[in-house]
Structures are given as C-alpha cells and as structure tokens.
C-alpha cells in the first residue's frame, strides 16, 4: 500500500492504495464519489471518463500511481448545483434515457468546449467518438453540445 494525495474537484483526498489500482476505484470506493461509472473496464466505452488537468481520460484503465500532482474533475466537480451550461443543455434536450453513460459524456463535452468553443458537427463527432451511449442519444448529445456552446 502506498499513500496518495489526490486533488479531486478542488479538494485534496489522502488515500492508501496499491499503485496499480485504477483511478476509477479510488474515486468511487476510497473517496466516495459515485458519479463516475464503471462500464467496460477496458477504457473503451467512456462511462468512467474524468478530466485530468482538463483532458478526458478513462479512469478505469488509468492507474492511481500515474496521477501525480494532476488535478482531477469528476461530474460532481463540474458544478456544485448541476447548473453548468452543458448540464442545463443536457436537460433541455432530454439527452439521458438510462443515464448511465452521461457523466462521461458530459465531461468529454466539457473538455471539447473548453478546447473548441464552437465545434462543428464533425468536430463533435470526433471528440465524442469512443463515448458509447447504449440508448443511442447521439443526435441529442450533439444538439446539447451546440446549445451549450452558445451559452459559454
């Protein structure tokens, strides 16, 4: 067991874990933030997406020992009241059906809009590629990203 200081959502969390523990399990089981979801366990579906220094990563396949001094943002840290423009656009466009993938989708969208405030449809599709929505709400996701881009 090693000791780690994780900067998650602007708060430092002191934890003890094995170096190879996936960041996902540290976030969910050791820190207690349940918004980040386990999907495939191989970094393929995007349900576990969090932001590491503002860039989306798959936390299920990212070891805790790789975090270092980086800042982690989970869905709980995007906004305290759930009123981030992306979250509001998600509600406006009724994006979630089952909702399971949505925290990863929203964080990927947040990273996209930070890097590219007015993305085209093609840029949205490229940036969101790899975030799987088993309910198939891709068109609503794209519409919500466009709506959020007008609010940022």
Comma- or semicolon-separated keywords:
5 strands, 152 residues, 5-stranded mixed sheet
Dominant shape: globular
How many H/I helices?
6
**What oligomeric arrangement do these chains adopt?**
single chain
Structural class: alpha+beta
Largest sheet report: 5 strands, mixed
What is the β-strand count?
5
How helical, in percent, are the residues? 25-40%
Low-confidence stretches: none
Quote the average pLDDT: 97
Strand content: 15-25%
Q: How big is the Rg?
A: 15 Å
How are the strands of the largest sheet arranged? Answer: 2-1-5-3-4
Taken in chain order, the helices and strands follow as EEHEEEHHHHH
What is the terminal-to-terminal distance? Answer: 42 Å
Write the topology of this structure:
Blueprint: E1 2-8, E2 11-17, H1 23-31, E3 49-52, E4 55-58, E5 71-73, H2 75-78, H3 85-92, H4 102-115, H5 121-128, H6 138-151
Helix pairs in contact: 3-6
Kindly describe this structure.
- This protein has 152 residues and is α+β, with helices and mostly antiparallel strands.
- Helix content is 38%, strand content 16%.
- It contains six helices and five strands, in the order E-E-H-E-E-E-H-H-H-H-H.
- A five-stranded mixed β-sheet has the order 2-1-5-3-4, sandwiched between helices.
- The longest helix is centred in the C-terminal third of the chain and has 14 residues, at 102-115.
- The chain is globular, with a radius of gyration of 15 Å.
- The model has no long low-confidence stretch (mean pLDDT 97).
């Amino acid at each position: 067991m090693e000791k780690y200081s994780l900067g998650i959502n602007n708060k430092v969390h002191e934890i003890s874990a094995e170096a190879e523990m996936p960041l996902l399990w540290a976030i969910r089981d050791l820190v207690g933030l349940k918004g980040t979801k386990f999907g495939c366990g191989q970094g393929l579906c995007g349900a576990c997406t969090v932001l590491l220094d503002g860039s989306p990563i798959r936390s299920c396949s990212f070891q805790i020992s790789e975090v270092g001094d980086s800042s982690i943002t989970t869905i709980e840290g995007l906004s305290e009241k759930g009123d981030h423009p992306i979250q509001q656009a998600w509600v406006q466009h009724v994006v979630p059906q089952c909702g399971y993938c949505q925290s990863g989708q929203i964080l990927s969208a947040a990273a996209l809009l930070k890097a590219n405030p007015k993305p085209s449809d093609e840029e949205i599709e490229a940036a969101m590629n790899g975030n799987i929505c088993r309910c198939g709400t891709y068109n609503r996701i794209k519409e919500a990203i466009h709506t959020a881009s007008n609010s940022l």
